[in-house]
């Protein structure tokens, strides 16, 4: 059943060469999101992994720079019966925030989280659709650490192994459902 689900998820991904800049192969999950059976299979796989790995999770934290990763986190949190915490581009969240700057594949960016998003010691899994160079994931991890959360794992659907982003995460627990070289 797991292999069947993985096959369904993989079949619903597509690639676009030279997007958003020449030399980049963009892995698009839009067809996966359009297909209810494939999206359900994705969530089943991620839910099974988290339930088998962690007896308690307080929150899923989602990197909300674009809508793709944002769509996975809340759905997964709902299935687990836990809350979802927003990690956004600077200036998108009201109230007091913590922020951190980081390097992207093609520039710089800044992420922030509301200062009261999690309490010290709460157990968090950071979820995104893709890990490339690791800058965004490291920034989200840094924000969680500033709030004194316990990051159980950084979880992505797709890992671009050739960019070595998981090496940046060093001792941070990391899991990717699909890997591309």
From TrEMBL:
Domain of life according to the entry: Eukaryota
EC class of the enzyme, as a word: transferase
Main subcellular location: cytoplasm
The entry's keywords:
Acetylation, Cytoplasm, Glycosyltransferase, Phosphoprotein, Purine salvage, Transferase
- Gene Ontology BP, a term: AMP salvage
Which stretch is the leader sequence? none
Q: Where is the Phosphoribosyltransferase domain?
A: 32-163
Please name the InterPro entries in this protein's record: Ade_phspho_trans, PRTase-like, PRTase_dom, UPRTase/APRTase
Known partners and oligomeric status: Homodimer.
> What name goes with this protein?
Adenine phosphoribosyltransferase
């Amino acid at each position: 059943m797991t292999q069947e689900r993985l096959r369904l998820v993989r079949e619903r991904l597509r690639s676009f060469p030279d997007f958003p800049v020449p030399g980049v192969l963009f892995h698009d999950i839009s067809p996966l999101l359009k297909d209810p059976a494939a999206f359900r299979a994705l969530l089943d796989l991620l839910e099974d992994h988290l339930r088998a790995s962690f007896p308690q999770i307080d929150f899923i934290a989602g990197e909300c720079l674009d809508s793709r990763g944002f769509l996975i986190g809340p759905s997964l949190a709902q299935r687990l019966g836990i809350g979802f915490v927003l990690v956004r581009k600077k200036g998108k969240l009201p109230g007091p925030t913590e922020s951190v700057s980081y390097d992207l594949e093609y520039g710089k960016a800044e992420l922030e989280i509301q200062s009261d998003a999690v309490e010290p010691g709460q157990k968090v899994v950071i979820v995104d659709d893709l890990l490339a160079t690791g800058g965004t994931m490291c920034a989200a991890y840094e924000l969680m650490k500033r709030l004194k959360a316990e990051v159980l794992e950084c979880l992505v659907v797709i890992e671009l192994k050739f960019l070595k982003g998981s090496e940046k995460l060093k001792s941070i627990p990391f899991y990717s459902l699909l890997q591309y070289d």
